[in-house]
Design brief:
Blueprint lengths: L1 E5 L6 H12 L3 E5 L4 E4 L6 E4 L2 E2 L5 E4 L6 H13 L3 E2 L3 H8 L1 H10 L7 E2 L7 H7 L5 E5 L8 E4 L2 H13 L4 E5 L7 E8 L2 E9 L14 E4 L4 H14 L3 E9 L2 E8 L5 H7 L3 H21 L1
Helix pairs in contact: 1-9, 2-3
Length: 299
Amino acid sequence: MKIAMLAQNANLYSHQRLKEAAEARGHTLDIIPTLRCYMNIASGRPEIYYNGEKLPIYDAVIPRIGASITHYGMAVLRQFEMQGVYPLNDSVSIGRSRDKLHSTQLLARDGIGLPVTTFAYDPKITEEVVRLAGGAPLVVKLLEGTQGVGVVLADSNRSAKSIIEAFRGAHVNILVQEFIKESSGTDIRALVVGGEVVATMKRTGAEGDFRSNLHRGGNAVPIEISAEERSTAIRAAKAMGLNVCGVDMLRSNHGPVVMEVNSSPGLEGIENATRIDIASKIIETLEKNVKLNLTKGNE
């Protein structure tokens, strides 16, 4: 196969591992900076250009689109899809996962465990929002945040009210969620590939930080998860429509609750923690799906 990867930084661990795994299995993989692509949106012949030249038609595309460039990245990915190129994760599924409100609504619709979550527009009903979420402590989360940025813990109803009113006064959209105290600053990252959980790790936050993101100084160790946790991760990936994703869960007193479904999960932390060759599993899944896609197209 000839594979394109949309990624701004070709040198990141995840991107190099995917390139190595693809080439080891006999494929070619070109890493193309997403923001340097431009498009000719012509009827019947969609084209993509990079460095002044038209890109060839690839068999598959691996989108590794940073959260800060989601809108443009999805436009480029859609252009690949219009050319009939098979996406590892499609633009619609990525869009669902990047919208925290939409993704939470979809997970709730499918009966997947979630922390109590509230959302409102009018800052005048802040006290009601706090009450519906169960009262402090509460987590206030920006809809556009990533890697723990834009996530604030309010330890009293008064501070929750102040934080919510400040964000809404600045016209910033937020979710207000129940704080899962019993998780004790740890979460579970389950890596789902092709509808199966292929690796799991427990992440623990840095000293004094309730967020467990590795980018914020947390650490990770491999962990065995329960059948319920495994089922929750698989169902969450299916609800988003993602072939590959990282599902972040907390262990609560009422079972696993999903905090986020990440459509471009990093591989370094989980491969180092588990010693599992996840990159090769991703390429193997891509091979199977491209073959099925081509078969359907020939029917």
